Amino acid sequence: MTSNKIRTRERVCEIGWFDDLCGGDTAFLGVPDPDRKSTFQHCLEIIQLADRLGYDNILLPTSYMDGQETLPFAAAAAVQTKQINLLTAVRTGEIHPPMLARHLATLDHMLHGRLTVNIINSDLPGLKEDHNLRYERCNEVISILRQAWTSDRIEHKGNVYPSFSLNASPVKPFQKNGGPLLYFGGISPGSKEVAARQCDVFLMWPEPEDSIQATIKEMSYRAEMCGRAIDFGLRIHVIVRETELEARLYAKHIMSRFDPTGFNLKHLAQDSQSAGVQRQDEVRSTMGDSDDFVEPNLWMGIGRARSGCGGAIVGNPQQVLEKMERYMDMGIRAFILSGYPLMEEAQHFAKWVLPKLPKAKLNRLQGRID
Description:
Layout: E1 14-18, H1 40-53, E2 57-60, H2 70-78, E3 85-91, H3 97-110, E4 115-120, H4 131-150, E5 153-156, E6 164-167, E7 182-185, H5 189-198, E8 201-204, H6 209-225, E9 231-240, H7 244-254, H8 275-287, E10 293-295, E11 298-299, E12 312-315, H9 317-330, E13 332-338, H10 342-352
Parallel strand pairs: 1-2, 1-13, 2-3, 3-4, 4-7, 7-8, 8-9, 9-12, 9-13
Antiparallel strand pairs: 5-6, 10-11, 11-12
Helix pairs in contact: 1-10, 2-3, 3-4, 4-5, 5-6
């Protein structure tokens, strides 16, 4: 049942896709694919296809790996897309907050308001940082962004960023009702506290339905204690085929060249040891069957070969739709989907499932839908 504490009360969903800025697109999991390298042209083709197919949003991830850097890519793609929102990931601490506000405001103008922002709270590349420092820095950065976008001046005094006072007129975004929506994920207590106080959409990785429901309940309560209501999103892969057997066989197919003792792309990612990745590994090892399914239509085998999101909805169109509808009944309002390879799977989902979903882009104003 949908919680009445969530930000968007209507039973609708924003359907997003994923772009390969970090170099993971492949026909076989765990195997580098020379035909799908993370070039500007390949990433642009993915985002333009998602735009044409009717996806609402697309995640542009950030990572210190071969591929495309997020903000420059987003700026270039902004003028080559028409309707899709760009969920642009930024790692707090990499750019001085007032200038980050200016970067994002400029991008929002280029997109005529089609910007959403995914806040990342991981270690800066090359550093191993204290968790409390990262949480405090993230909280300060978001506070500065919100103040920059909504006030005449930026007046800040913090522990991570020292006292400064600035005119906020150079950092005003296109979106006048508070600026871009902020998406945020993380399962540590510190991350959950930042999300409850600051984010608009709390993103989760795949887990069994009972765990997702428990997280929504916990985060709704945390946000309520801060005088707020937030939305919930699920970052998950998808394999949809005309029959369940075809979908399950395809899951086996894309894992058929994975060598667990050899080269593994998973270990190149900076978040491969994060709490969220470890939690997904635990779910797979303790609950998975011989094929890594942990519950009907939820396959966690992807987590063997890649970091980040490690699970997929697998089934025929009706099974995939019903699984997503159950998530919506719990309170999920945003899905960020992907598949292998990205362009081919985007077309399968758009053909068989996308037209059947009650789609709507999430709006800055609580409870209001475009």
